[in-house]
Amino acid sequence: MQPRFTAPDVGLQGGSVSFLLTVTDAGGLQSTDNCVVNVSWVNEPPIANAGPDSSSSEQEVVMLDGSASEDPDDGISSYRWHQKTGTPVTLDDPTAVKPSFRAPGVKPGGESLAFQLTVSDTGGLQSTDDCVVDVAEAQTGTVEINDLETGTYVTSGRGKNKSTAFVLTDVFRAGESVVIRAYVVNATSDRPLANAAVAITVTGPETAILLIGLSDANGMVEAAWNTSPPKNRIKPGTPSGTYTATVNNVTANGYTWEGVSTISTTFTIR
Predict the structure, then answer these.
(1) CATH topology agreement for domains 54-136 and 141-269
(2) Mean pLDDT of 7-36
(3) What is the model's pLDDT at position 168?
């Protein structure tokens, strides 16, 4: 006699659900009545993401990254960064998604700087998240690549639902862009290293030299090799076959590349 239901998700304008009740007496006679339940939109809070903890050397430019923050309904309206601990630094824009600062000079042993990101949605709800940047004394450290991968960017959806995502693949058609991603880490701490430049050589039926830089707070750096589609006999396009992308140098202020192991990955052009 008193059923329950879970109200559906609705948009910013709300919605309504109509029900029809039919009652039947012992003699089989029936009667009906309608009711409407108006469902109001309830704002869900955003989810702040200040990015992973990272490492840097003193006097390096460090970029914070809040781009992974999200809001499930009405969207993020503002970002606000502030420093919680450590030697005070100046952010170039505390309201930016990716502000940057120059790491301060530190004593032997280094220092950790903590930052907090506060994101607000259109409805005024807020969320916070923290990240830590470990600043090391300027000295020669060792940097290495812990992953090298290929892929492409794929766009799906339309209008407000349109989105672009990176998809791993090792097979491409001539004329497509081969996106090569390298992940740079501090060899000692195994933490992502920002502001590192990576040189990659592509060998195979055709050769290309790519200079990628600079790595972000996740240690990720990428470059695109734009292959050529076949047009005619004079311009046959990028040759098909198996190619190898190999890291042949990494440069970062205060670090040297370990350069011992060969970091490479293969892909195919069809």
Answers:
(1) yes
(2) 87
(3) 97
The domain 141-269 is placed in CATH, from the list 2.60.40.1930, 3.40.50.150, 2.40.10.10, 2.40.50.140, at 2.60.40.1930
The pLDDT value recorded for residue 78 is 97
User: Domain 54-136 falls in which CATH fold?
Assistant: Immunoglobulin-like (2.60.40)
What is the per-residue burial (b if ≥16 Cβ within 10 Å, else e) of 145-158?
Answer: beebbbbbeeeeee
Domain chopping of the chain, boundaries: 54-136, 141-269
Q: What is the mean pLDDT of residues 34-49?
A: 89
**pLDDT computed for residue 162 by the predictor:** 86
Q: How confident is the model at residue 261 (pLDDT cuts 50, 70, 90)?
A: low
Predicted pLDDT of residue 29: 93
Percent of the chain whose predicted confidence (pLDDT) is above 90 = 64
